[in-house]
Design goal:
The structure holds 3 protein chains of 3 kinds. By secondary structure, chain A is mostly helical. Chain A is 37% helix and 5% strand. The chains are: A mainly alpha, B mainly alpha, C mainly alpha.
Chain lengths: 697, 211, 234
C-alpha cells in the first residue's frame, strides 16, 4: 500500500487513491464534497486520517470549489451550509444506460430546457448551480462510467446535479443497490468479521446535504449551514426554496395517533416507500425537502424492478488478511442473519425510518450473542474424557430416582446346615458308637525323631520353661498336641516352669499340667511352678528374656506368698539365674505373631538351650522357615494332631490325641468330601452353562 | 503450647525408642541397663493399659444400659459377669478355685465352641470357593488344601496303599518346599513392613500416642 | 475361701455344656442363646484379665514394695512408675487425656524399637542368611537329609518362591500417560509366580486351620457326648 492508496473504512480493502468508492463493498471512500472538489480541482487531496472532521472538510472543499469555479460567495441571508455542501463527484455512477427511471428521464427531459421557474424568482446562486449541473451532466453523459455493482443511491443523487431542479426529481435507486443507512458517515474502522456486507458509504447526513433554508433541521456539527448555493445534486426545487411544501408531502400532516415525530425517509427503495403513516408524522410545514424526494411517496407500492444479474448486487464485504487471521474458526455464529434485500424489514422508527436493511440496533443489542472470541480449542485426552463421562454418569445416577428395594427374601442356609450336620454327625459317631475306628498314622512326621532325640538329651537338673501363649479357643488342639511332649518330659522327671504373656495362659497351664501331671505325681511348687503373667507382648518377652528374676513380680497358684523372693526360691527354679539357665524353652503358640515374637526377642537369650515350638497346624508353614535352616532359630517343631498321635505312639502312652483321632479323622473325611463335591458341582455348573451358551449361540 | 507438647511427646518416644534399639546392636552395660529399665516401665504401663481397656468396655456397656438402647439386657449381663469376676479375682486372687471354675466353665468352653464353629465355616467357605470361582489361583488354593488334608487325615484304606504314599510324598513336598518358599517370602515381607512401621514411629513420622 | 469344689465343678461342668450348646446353636442362625453365651464369655474373660493384671502385675510392683519394705521402697524408679501409671490412668477422661500422652509415648517408643530390632536381628538377617546358606552345594537338607540334585531342585524352588513372593508385595509402579500403573513385564511375570506361591502357602495354612478347628470340634463334641453319657448312663 502506498501513501496514496486509500483504505476502505468498511472492509479495509486497499483502493487506489483516486477511487471514490470501494471496489469490493462499494462504500464511499471520499466525502461527496471532497470528491466534487477533487474532480473539479484536480488530483484528489490525500485524506488526513480516518477521523477527520468531515464537516470542515466539506466546508473547505466548498470554498475551494467556489474559488475554483468562480462562484459567488454565499450571500447574506443564505445558509452557510450550502457553501459547504460537498459537490457531487462526476465519477459517480448513474443508472444503467437505458434504464433510467421514470423520474430521472423526466428530469432529463426537463433538464434540457431551462428551468420552469420564473427567472425572477430563482436566486442567482441557484441559477448558477443549475447551469453548472447542466454542463456537468452533459460532460458526464459523454464520459459516463460503465455501470458496476457498486452503485449507490448517492451516485444517483450526484447525477441529478446536472438535472434541472424539478421538484419531481426523484432520487431513486437501482433495484440492486442496497439502501445505505442515513446518518453520519461511519468512521473508517475495520468491520466485525461477519458483519453484514458493508453498505455503501452513507451519504452525509440530511442536514449536511439538504437542510431547508429555514434551518429546521440543524446540521450535525451545530453550525448553521451556510447556503450560498444549493448543492447541484440536491435539485432543490424552487417550491422548496420558496418555502412551499413538497408534493410528496401534500396531504401529509402530523398524525395525532402517532407518537413522536419521525424523520421522513429521504431515500426510497424499490418496493419500499415512505409510508403515508410515516410521512404523515412529518411536520413538514417548516422543513424544505428537495424535490427529488417528492416521488418517494409515489413510488410506494411499486413492485421493485428486477434485481438484475447477481453480479450486479453488492458484493459481500471481504475481510483483510490480518483480520481474517484473527477470526476464530467455528466459534462465532452470527446471530444476526443477513437477509436478502427483499426480505429485509423497513425501519419504522428513528431517523432511519423508511429505509430497508438498516442494522437493527435494538434487537441486536438485546439479543443474546455468543462472544466474538471464545478462546482456543479445548484439548481433551481420552482419560479426561473417560473421567468426565464417569462423573456425568455418576451425576445422572444421583439424579435418577432409585426405586424402593424389595424386601430381601430370607434365604435359609441349607448348605451351612448340611455341612454342619454332616460334620457334627461324623465327629460324634466315633464318640457315640465307637466306630469307625481309624488306624493311627504309622508314618512318622519328618521332624518328630529330632524332637524326641532333643527331649531325650535334655539335662534333668534344669527346669524346662513352658510358654503357654495361646487362647482357650485352641485348647482342644494344643492340649492334645503338647500333651505327649509334656508326658515325655514328665516321664524324665524334668521340672517345669510356666509363663505366659496372655491372661488366659496361667489357668490353661494349670489345667494341662494338672491333667497330665496327676498321672506322674507332679505337684505344684515341687515339680512345676507357674511364674505368672507378663503383659506387653514383645516388651514382656524381652524383659523376661533379659532378666527373668526381676521381670516377674508375682506368680500364679504359688504355694507360698507371692513375693519375688518366694517364687524364685522354690526348688523348681533352683539354679535358674537367667534365661539361658532353663534346660529348654518350649513355646506353645497358636498365633504366628506371638511365635515370631518369642523367636525374635527371646531367641538371642536362649544361649545353648534349645527352642522348641509346639504350634497349631494353621501356623506351621510360617514357623517352618525358622526351623529349616542350616543355623535354625527353632530347634524342633511339633505341629498337628497326626504328629501328636505319632508322638504318643513313640511314648507308648495313649493320650488326648489318640482319643480325638477317630473323630478328627471322620471329620477330615467329611471336609475332604465337601471340597471334592464342591469341585464337581463347580465343574458341572460350568459345563452346563457353557453348553447352554453354545446352544443359544 | 499444644505444638510444644506434641513435640515433647515425639521427642520422648524417639529418644526412648532409639535407646532401646541401640541396645540390640551395642551391648554396653549402660545401654543394657537403660534398656531394661525402659522395657520394665513399658511392661508396667501395659498392665495399666489393660485396665484402661477394661474401663472403656465397662463405660460403653453402662451407657448402653442407662440409655436403654437396643440389646441393653445383654450389656447388663456382660457388666454383671465382668464385675463379678473382677471382684472375685481381685479379692480372692485369680487363681482361687471359684475364679478357675469360672474360667474353665465359661470362658474356655465358649471360646472353644466358637473355634469349633470355625470348622463348619471353613469347610463351607472351601466348598463355595471351589464351586463358584474358576480361576487359577482358586484352583491352586483348594487343590493344595485338599492334598494336605488328604495327607493329614487318616486314609480309609490304610496307609500302605501306593496312592496314600504318593499323596503323602506330594503333601510333604508341597508343605516343606513350595509352601516354605512362600512362607519365607511372607515372613520377610512382614518383617520389612514391621521394621518400616517401627522406624516411622521412632522418627516421629507417625504419632499414635496422641497430641 | 472354702468352697465345695465338687459341687462347684459339677455346676461348672453343666454350665460348660450349656454354654457349648448355646454357642453351637449359631449354626441355626443368630439367636438369643448365642448372644447370652457370648456376652457372658466376654464379661468373664475381661474380668479375669483385669483381676490377673491387678493382682500379678500392678499390685506386686506398686503396692507390695511399700507394704513389705516401707518407705525404703520409695526410690526414683518407684516414684516414676507411680507417676507414669497415674498419668496413663488419667487417659480415661477426655479432659485429662492429654496427660496420658507421655506414658503412651514411652510405651509406643519402646514397642516400636523392640519390633524394629526384633525384625532386623530375628527375621530379616537370619532368614536372608538361611536363604544364602541353602545355596551351598555341599549342604545337606536339615529335615530330610536330601543331597545332590534333589536338594538343589528344592533349594531353587524355595529361592524362586521367596523372591517371587517378595516381588509380589511390591505395589509401586510408574504412572502411565493415562494415569494407569505401569510395571515391567518381568515384574508382572514374577509377581504372578509369587501369587501362585502365596496361594499355595495359604492353601497349606487353610488346611492346617481346618485341621485345628476339626480337632477342637472333636474335643467339644466328645465332651458333650461324654457328659451326656455320664448323666444318662450314671
Amino acid at each position: 500500500m502506498t501513501m496514496a492508496d486509500v483504505r476502505c473504512p468498511m472492509c479495509s480493502t486497499i483502493n487506489p487513491a483516486d477511487a471514490t468508492a470501494c471496489s469490493v463493498c462499494g462504500a464511499r471512500l471520499k466525502p461527496m464534497i471532497a470528491g466534487e472538489a477533487e474532480s473539479l480541482a484536480g488530483p484528489p487531496e490525500p485524506q488526513e486520517g480516518e477521523a477527520g472532521d468531515w464537516l470542515a472538510r466539506i466546508r473547505s472543499e466548498v470554498e475551494r470549489k467556489a474559488e475554483t469555479s468562480g462562484e459567488a460567495p454565499p450571500r447574506p441571508g443564505e445558509p452557510e451550509w450550502l457553501n459547504r455542501l460537498r459537490p457531487a463527484s462526476g465519477e459517480e455512477e448513474g443508472p444503467p444506460e437505458g434504464e433510467l427511471p421514470e423520474w430521472l428521464s423526466e428530469e432529463e427531459g426537463s433538464a434540457a430546457g431551462p428551468s420552469e421557474a420564473a427567472p425572477g424568482e430563482v436566486p442567482d446562486w441557484l441559477a448558477r448551480i443549475r447551469e453548472r449541473q447542466k454542463t456537468e451532466l452533459e460532460a458526464a453523459a459523454e464520459e459516463a462510467p460503465p455501470p458496476s455493482a457498486d452503485d449507490d443511491w448517492l451516485g444517483r443523487l450526484r447525477r441529478e446535479e446536472f438535472l434541472p431542479t424539478e421538484p419531481e426529481a426523484p432520487l431513486g435507486e437501482e433495484p440492486e443497490r442496497e439502501a445505505p443507512p442515513l446518518g453520519p458517515r461511519p468512521p473508517s474502522r475495520p468491520l466485525p468479521p461477519s458483519s453484514p456486507p458493508a453498505p455503501a458509504a452513507a451519504p452525509p447526513p440530511i442536514s449536511a446535504t439538504g437542510p431547508p433554508p429555514s434551518g429546521r433541521i440543524p446540521p450535525p456539527s451545530g453550525e448553521k449551514p451556510a447556503v450560498s448555493q444549493a448543492p447541484p445534486f440536491m435539485g432543490i426545487s424552487k417550491d422548496l426554496l420558496e418555502g412551499a411544501m413538497p408534493k410528496w408531502l401534500e396531504g401529509a400532516g402530523p398524525s395525532s395517533d402517532e407518537g413522536l415525530p419521525h424523520m421522513p425517509a429521504l431515500v426510497a427503495e424499490e418496493g419500499l416507500a415512505v409510508t403515508p403513516e410515516s410521512a404523515s408524522d412529518l411536520q413538514m410545514g417548516s422543513i424544505d425537502i428537495p424535490n427529488w424526494l417528492g416521488d418517494l411517496r409515489k413510488d410506494a407500492g411499486v413492485a421493485p424492478p428486477d434485481a438484475g444479474a447477481p453480479g450486479d448486487s453488492l458484493a459481500r464485504a471481504t475481510l483483510p488478511a490480518w483480520l481474517e487471521a484473527m477470526r476464530p474458526m467455528d466459534t462465532f455464529r452470527p446471530v444476526v442473519e443477513i437477509q436478502a434485500e427483499d426480505a429485509q424489514e423497513v425501519e419504522s422508527a428513528g431517523p432511519l425510518a423508511g429505509l430497508r436493511g438498516v442494522l437493527l440496533a435494538e434487537p441486536v443489542v438485546a439479543m443474546p450473542r455468543q462472544p466474538s472470541y471464545s478462546g482456543a480449542r479445548l484439548e481433551v485426552t481420552e482419560r479426561q474424557f473417560a473421567l468426565a463421562d464417569l462423573i456425568h454418569r455418576m451425576v445422572e445416577q444421583e439424579a435418577s430416582e432409585v426405586g424402593p428395594k424389595p424386601p430381601a427374601r430370607r434365604r435359609l442356609p441349607f448348605s451351612r446346615w448340611a455341612i454342619a450336620g454332616a460334620l457334627f454327625l461324623a465327629v460324634a459317631l466315633p464318640a457315640l458308637l465307637g466306630a469307625p475306628s481309624l488306624s493311627v498314622p504309622t508314618l512318622v512326621p519328618p521332624g518328630l525323631p529330632a524332637l524326641i532325640t532333643l527331649v531325650d538329651s535334655l539335662p534333668g537338673d534344669r527346669p524346662v520353661l513352658l510358654v503357654f501363649d495361646y487362647e482357650p479357643a485352641y485348647a482342644g488342639e494344643l492340649d492334645a498336641v503338647a500333651g505327649p511332649l509334656l508326658e515325655d518330659l514328665m516321664q524324665r522327671d524334668i521340672r517345669l516352669a510356666t509363663v505366659s504373656t496372655r491372661p488366659s495362659g496361667p489357668p490353661l497351664a494349670e489345667r494341662l499340667i494338672r491333667r497330665i501331671g496327676d498321672a506322674h505325681g507332679y505337684l505344684n511348687g515341687q515339680d512345676y511352678v507357674h511364674l505368672g503373667y507378663l503383659p506387653g507382648g514383645p516388651a514382656a518377652v524381652q524383659l523376661f528374656a533379659r532378666d527373668p528374676r526381676e521381670s516377674l513380680a508375682g506368680g500364679f497358684l504359688l504355694a507360698q506368698e507371692p513375693t519375688r523372693r518366694g517364687m524364685w526360691s522354690t526348688p523348681v527354679l533352683a539354679g535358674v539365674q537367667q534365661f539361658s539357665d532353663f534346660g529348654a524353652v518350649v513355646i506353645i503358640a497358636a498365633g504366628t505373631e506371638i511365635a515370631r515374637t518369642w523367636v525374635e526377642q527371646a531367641g538371642p537369650w536362649t544361649g545353648a538351650s534349645p527352642l522348641v515350638m509346639v504350634a497349631s497346624a494353621g501356623i506351621e508353614p510360617l514357623i517352618r522357615p525358622y526351623y529349616e535352616a542350616l543355623n535354625p532359630q527353632v530347634d524342633a517343631v511339633l505341629s498337628g494332631l497326626p504328629a501328636a498321635v505319632a508322638y504318643e505312639q513313640a511314648n507308648g502312652r495313649a493320650g488326648d490325641a489318640r482319643l480325638l483321632w477317630d473323630s478328627f479323622g471322620t471329620g477330615m473325611l467329611v471336609a475332604e468330601m465337601a471340597l471334592i463335591l464342591g469341585g464337581m458341582y463347580g465343574a458341572a455348573s460350568f459345563l452346563l452353562r457353557s453348553g447352554t451358551g453354545t446352544s443359544e449361540s | 503450647m499444644r505444638l510444644r507438647l506434641s513435640l515433647l511427646w515425639a521427642a520422648v518416644a524417639s529418644a526412648v525408642g532409639l535407646l532401646v534399639l541401640a541396645g540390640f546392636f551395642i551391648q554396653t552395660p549402660i545401654l543394657i541397663a537403660l534398656g531394661g529399665s525402659l522395657v520394665g516401665l513399658a511392661v508396667l504401663l501395659a498392665g495399666v493399659a489393660l485396665l484402661l481397656g477394661l474401663y472403656n468396655l465397662l463405660s460403653v456397656h453402662l451407657r448402653k444400659i442407662s440409655l436403654q438402647e437396643r440389646g441393653w439386657p445383654y450389656s447388663a449381663l456382660l457388666v454383671l459377669s465382668l464385675l463379678g469376676t473382677l471382684v472375685l479375682g481381685v479379692f480372692f486372687g485369680p487363681d482361687n478355685p471359684v475364679a478357675l471354675v469360672l474360667f474353665n466353665s465359661f470362658q474356655l468352653p465358649a471360646e472353644a465352641s466358637l473355634m469349633a464353629l470355625l470348622a463348619v465355616t471353613l469347610t463351607l467357605a472351601g466348598f463355595r470357593l471351589i464351586s463358584r470361582r474358576r480361576d487359577l489361583l482358586s484352583f491352586v488354593f483348594v487343590g493344595v488344601a485338599l492334598l494336605v488334608l488328604l495327607g493329614t487325615g487318616p486314609w480309609p484304606s490304610g496307609e500302605t496303599s501306593d496312592t496314600y504314599l504318593l499323596i503323602i510324598d506330594v503333601r510333604n513336598w508341597l508343605a516343606q518346599v513350595w509352601a516354605a518358599g512362600g512362607a519365607r517370602g511372607i515372613l520377610l515381607g512382614v518383617a520389612l513392613g514391621a521394621a518400616a512401621t517401627g522406624l516411622r514411629v521412632l522418627l516421629a513420622a507417625d504419632r499414635p500416642y496422641g497430641e | 475361701m472354702t468352697v465345695d469344689l465338687t459341687a462347684l465343678e459339677t455346676a461348672g461342668t453343666i454350665a460348660s455344656a450349656l454354654l457349648t450348646l448355646m454357642v453351637l446353636s449359631y449354626i441355626l442362625g443368630d439367636n438369643v442363646l448365642f448372644r447370652i453365651a457370648v456376652h457372658l464369655f466376654v464379661g468373664v474373660a475381661a474380668g479375669y484379665a483385669g483381676a490377673l493384671a491387678l493382682r500379678t502385675v500392678l499390685y506386686p510392683r506398686l503396692v507390695l514394695p511399700l507394704l513389705s519394705d516401707g518407705f525404703s521402697a520409695i526410690t526414683a524408679a518407684f516414684v516414676v512408675s507411680w507417676v507414669l501409671a497415674l498419668l496413663l490412668g488419667l487417659k480415661a477422661w477426655p479432659s485429662t487425656a492429654w496427660l496420658g500422652s507421655l506414658p503412651m509415648a514411652l510405651l509406643v517408643g519402646v514397642g516400636a524399637a523392640l519390633v524394629v530390632g526384633g525384625a532386623i536381628t530375628g527375621t530379616l538377617v537370619p532368614q536372608a542368611l538361611a536363604t544364602m546358606d541353602s545355596l551351598d552345594p555341599s549342604a545337606v537338607a536339615p529335615l530330610t537329609g536330601e543331597t545332590g540334585f534333589e536338594r538343589v531342585a528344592n533349594v531353587l524352588i524355595l529361592l524362586i518362591g521367596t523372591i517371587s513372593t517378595l516381588v509380589y508385595f511390591r505395589f509401586t509402579a510408574r504412572r502411565g500417560p493415562l494415569g494407569e500403573a505401569l510395571r515391567s513385564p518381568l515384574s508382572i511375570a514374577v509377581s504372578f509366580v509369587g501369587s501362585v506361591f502365596i496361594a499355595l502357602t495359604f492353601g497349606v495354612m487353610y488346611a492346617g486351620a481346618l485341621a485345628a478347628a476339626l480337632a477342637v470340634l472333636s474335643e467339644r463334641i466328645q465332651f458333650l457326648v461324654g457328659l451326656a453319657r455320664g448323666l444318662l448312663g450314671g
